Amino acid sequence: MSVTAIVPRRRRRLALAAGVSLLALAATGCSGLGRTAVGPVTYTTEREAVIQVNSPSVRGCHRIAPAGAHEVENGTLVDVILYRTRDCTGRGTTYVPTRFSDVTAPGSGPWRSYSFVH
């Protein structure tokens, strides 16, 4: 083999490795856009209706029914933060780890929204 035949092979290998790396990087960067919290978030409203949301997006603020919820079960694979406001802001939050549930204390008011820790 001559030296001239080795140089193009190295360039092809480097170009192939760079292309594969860029493709993997692009796929990883976009994979989080549609990520969901696998499993259900189940809550009981103040009117005793049981509502289950299956695999909600991990992004953003999720509103609970207008009446609010007094019991929330996190059956997802991602931890949840519960809020007393409709826009996932303010004080009085409650942290509910994956596969746990929480019930409001008497007189504390219902939860009105939740978000995921990610």
Automatic annotation (TrEMBL):
The keyword Signal applies. Keywords: Signal. It comes from the Bacteria. Residues 1-26 form the signal peptide. This is Lipoprotein. It comes from Streptomyces filamentosus. The lineage of its organism: Bacteria, Bacillati, Actinomycetota, Actinomycetes, Kitasatosporales.
